[in-house]
Design a protein that fits this description.
Blueprint lengths: L3 H9 L11 E5 L2 E4 L4 E4 L2 H4 L8 H11 L12 H13 L5 E4 L2 H15 L4 E5 L8 H5 L4 H4 L9 E4 L3 H7 L4 E6 L2 E2 L5 E2 L2 H14 L2 E5 L23 E4 L10 E5 L20 H14 L2 H19 L4 E7 L2 E6 L3 H12 L1 E2 L1 E4 L2 E4 L7 H16 L1
The structure holds pyridoxal-5'-phosphate (PLP).
Length: 384
């Protein structure tokens, strides 16, 4: 029988999501509670959004205070949180300038517009297995037949190549506006791009004057053990896209450039009504400050190593991939079934990115006891 919410959904909500049959009503740290008071351990963070855990006290305090002071006035005026946040984002990464928006796909759109303005009519080279979002530009940059085909025709000028150094070198030429890539492909199963692939992309962009854009929407905000994943690669991109965990659970995205691309977009070129509004910007300032703490990033590296090692020893796990607390396991059993058993039987929130791929994106604040508990509860879910 359908619950009241399931009936409301069936009647009223366009069916783009396959939801799990659980209604969450409260969260704190790594824990969630459903409407019957059952406690769950969250190993997914709303797909890497609540990286600081649910209801992080500093984020909550910032939102409460700002919401009672000034929620929105728009980009025709100055507001302090957005200007301070832009400065913090720039100094924490590439040292250029920031465009604010409201989601990951919008950050990708901004990057595409910037790249095309820098090289008029230029192509964008993307990588097979990528996911950059669902809006038309971001979807056109997402070379997955099942996602693109129903929505053709797409935006022209995108070329996909294999994640190999020679393929990237061959794909980039004098007409390339940008190479857009995720340093770790998240939605298609946590595939870490090799250093030589990133270095080849950097070299090809330098040679042909194209922009190298890293999509750090999932890998950023501490997820891999450094604030930005590119810090661990030896390659510095010309711009990064950021979203998901940026505002500690509120919707916000950003394009952050290095100095070379900082002034490509000018007044009137791009915009968004809600972008950089005071409440989300205050939340992001609090989230960025908490995420930048060395002890937190050290926790990501340590707990990530413990979790990866523990996962590798569990039944039906063939391979563990990822960095920090962005991990996936390749299984020899059905991952969606494991996710269902983990959720309903063990009260663990996980996710399957494919038929045999289990993805874990726990809060960066997870402690050692919670990692051990997660491993102990995953074992029976894997055994079935
Ligand atoms: C790497 C990457 N880019 C872009 C997006 C799109 O973000 P959003 O869903 O906020 O539009 C996602 C979402 O999963 C992502 O993982």
């Amino acid at each position: 029988m359908l619950s009241e919410l399931q009936a409301l959904e069936r009647e009223n909500v366009i069916g783009t999501y396959a939801r799990n049959p659980v209604e969450f009503v409260r969260g704190e740290g790594a824990r969630l509670w459903d409407e019957d008071g059952n406690e769950y351990l969250d190993l997914l963070c709303g797909i890497s959004v609540t990286n600081l855990g649910h209801c992080h006290p500093e984020v909550v305090a910032a939102v409460r205070e700002q919401a009672g002071t000034l929620m929105h006035v728009g980009n025709l005026f100055y507001t302090e949180p957005a200007m301070r946040l832009a400065a913090r984002l720039s100094e924490s990464s590439l040292g250029g300038k920031v465009f604010f928006c409201n989601s990951g796909a919008e950050a990708v759109e901004a990057a595409l517009k910037l790249a095309r303005k820098a090289r008029a009519g230029g192509d964008v080279v993307v990588i097979h297995g990528a996911f950059h979002g669902r809006t038309y530009g971001a979807l056109s940059a997402t070379p997955q037949e099942s996602k693109q085909a129903p929505f053709a025709p797409l935006v022209p000028g995108f070329r996909a190549c294999e994640p190999r150094a020679d393929a990237i070198a061959a794909a980039v030429d004098a007409n390339t506006a940008a190479v857009l890539l995720e340093p770790i492909q998240g939605e298609t199963g946590v595939h870490v791009l090799c250093e030589d692939v990133l270095a080849a992309a950097r070299a090809a962009c330098d040679e042909h004057g194209a922009a190298l854009v890293f999509d750090e929407i999932q890998t950023g905000m501490g997820r891999t053990g450094t604030l930005w994943a590119y810090e661990q690669t030896g390659v510095v991109p010309d711009a990064i896209t950021v979203a998901k965990a940026l505002a500690g659970g509120l919707p916000m995205g950003a394009l952050v450039t290095g100095p070379r691309l900082a002034d490509v977009l000018a007044a009137g070129d791009h915009g968004s009504t809600f972008a950089g509004s005071p409440t989300v910007a205050r939340a992001a300032l609090a989230a960025l400050a908490a995420t930048s703490a060395p002890a937190l990033l050290e926790n990501v590296r340590r707990r990530g190593a413990e979790l990866a090692e523990g996962l590798a020893g569990l039944p039906h796990v063939l391979e563990v991939r990822g960095r920090g607390l962005m991990l996936a396991c390749e299984l020899d059993v059905s991952a969606p079934e494991v996710v269902r058993r983990a959720l309903l039987g063990e009260r663990l929130v996980t996710n399957a990115t494919g038929p045999t791929t289990l993805r874990l994106l726990p809060p960066l604040t997870i402690d050692g006891a919670q990692v051990q508990s997660a491993l102990e509860r995953l074992a029976p879910a894997l055994e079935g």
